[in-house]
Design a protein that fits this description.
Helix content: 40-55%
Structural class: alpha/beta
Radius of gyration: 21 Å
Number of domains: 2
Shape: globular
CATH superfamily of the largest domain: Glycogen Phosphorylase B
CATH class of the largest domain: Alpha Beta
CATH architecture of the largest domain: 3-Layer(aba) Sandwich
CATH topology of the largest domain: Rossmann fold
Order of helices and strands: EHEEHEHEHEHEHEEEEHEHEHEHEHEHH
Strand order of the largest sheet: 3-2-1-4-5-6-7
Strand content: 15-25%
Distance between the termini: 6 Å
């Protein structure tokens, strides 16, 4: 058979720790499944940052692309027209629209363009959210007509996609970031020493925070640098959004100081992606016990660093799905503060919905919770009382997630063998 060219398209190049972990494990899967059949791998990059920080192999071609503007759909068409045999939709949030319609549209456009030029399309361990009605119709048409293999990472996503009218077979797997390896002990010690942390002497508690209230994302050619999301896309603030953002930061600062005092702990403020960094940094700088805090921005720490720190933590309080995924192999007890289906799905599978906070519904700028600080104190008490049981529960579930994640490669390999004889 002829050799294959494979193009991966996800939310990459934005210093998003979770998306980059998923991309790296997906590329590893592709290489294992196809071996010498691969002629070339390409990666589409949304962001304004250097993806070479993660993609060290110079043989993998990186194509910068922005959602709109001169480097948008026309450039996407040009790249796809280079003759890639398979388009891999590698982003976990491919079929989610709560942050912006544009992202689901550009993923669906890529699938349709690839199909029109005679190539194959694979949805690789994606999620599927509560979509707007017009996006439900678009998803139904795109998946039924343009996507050849569908793998979803949780039962909730599979159920929703079937409800939206997708008739093709949907394989239930798991996020391949569950396969991301824990760095060795020497690596972990080095990063801990760099931050002057010793979890044997003083526990580490990680807060992985994001900004819930800058909505919507708007698209125009120029705007304030501080509000730049990705090229041509800018964050916007309503008066209510600004007020509730301030309230969130105030309550989380109070909670971080509480954790220091209750557990004599070091607190890590982890920005899992670029847009998380301002809120994480501000909470860190406001802490009364700032000397016990550490600010960990995704542009200065990579997946290996953040995986090491998450797995060294005693507890995790996260707004980010992939912080839960990357800490899973260490069985770290966790509380989730969420705005969408991603953390909800994993906490449901873990049987930990009593430690899940349904905080805000995008793009609504108002929180569902009257007093987040008090609620977190209650959740913390529950987590501490159940600590031993939670560690066992998460470790057992991690084994199941890893087994399911390995199915991505197995299913893809079998499909590719049938499709490209």
């Amino acid at each position: 058979m002829d050799k294959l060219k494979v193009l991966c398209f996800g939310y990459n190049g934005t210093n998003n720790t979770g998306s980059e972990a998923k991309l790296l494990t997906t590329i590893a899967d592709l290489r294992e499944a196809l071996g010498e059949k691969i002629e070339k791998i390409g990666v589409l990059s949304f962001g304004r940052y250097d993806l070479r920080r993660y993609i060290k192999d110079e043989n993998i071609e990186i194509y910068p692309i922005t959602p709109l503007g001169t480097n948008g759909p026309l450039n996407l068409l040009r790249i796809i027209d280079e003759g890639y045999n398979i388009l891999i939709l590698s982003e976990g949030s491919t079929f989610i629209d709560h942050f912006s319609d544009v992202f689901i549209w550009i993923f669906m456009l890529a699938a349709r363009l690839q199909k029109l030029r005679g190539g194959k399309v694979v949805a690789y361990a994606n999620d599927c959210g509560h979509l707007k009605e017009h996006n439900q119709r678009g998803l139904k048409k795109t998946l039924n007509e343009s996507i050849d293999l569908i793998m979803l990472r949780n039962p909730d996503a599979k159920k929703r996609m079937e409800e939206y009218g997708v008739k093709k077979k949907i394989h239930l797997t798991a996020d391949d970031a569950y396969l991301y390896p824990l760095p060795d002990e020497n690596y972990r010690k080095k990063i801990l020493n760099k931050l002057k942390l010793d979890p044997k002497k003083k526990p580490i508690i990680t807060l992985a925070l994001k900004e819930f209230f800058w909505w919507p994302v708007t698209f125009h050619l120029h705007g304030p640098e501080k509000d730049l999301y990705v090229p041509t896309a800018y964050q916007t603030w309503t008066p209510e959004g600004k007020e509730n953002s301030e309230r969130f930061k105030r309550e989380l600062t109070q909670y971080a100081d509480y954790l220091v005092e209750r557990f004599n702990a070091n607190i890590l403020l982890v920005g899992m992606e670029g847009m998380d960094c301002p809120v994480s940094k501000e909470v860190y700088e406001r802490m009364k016990h700032k000397s016990e805090g550490r600010y960990i921005p995704s542009h200065k720490y990579d997946v290996n660093d953040i995986k090491s720190l998450l797995c060294s933590s005693k507890y995790l309080v996260t707004t980010r799905y992939h912080a839960s995924v990357l800490s899973s192999s260490a069985g770290v007890p966790a509380i989730a503060i969420s705005s969408d289906t991603r953390l909800e799905a994993v906490f449901r599978e873990l049987g930990m919905t009593d430690l899940y906070v349904d905080y805000v519904k995008h793009p609504n700028p108002f929180p569902n919770v009257e007093n987040l600080y008090e609620l977190l104190l209650d959740k913390t008490d529950k987590m501490v009382k159940r600590e031993g049981e939670l560690r066992k529960r998460i470790l057992k579930a991690d084994g199941d997630f890893v087994s399911r994640a390995k199915k991505n490669q197995e299913i893809f390999s079998e499909w590719a063998g049938r499709t490209f004889k």
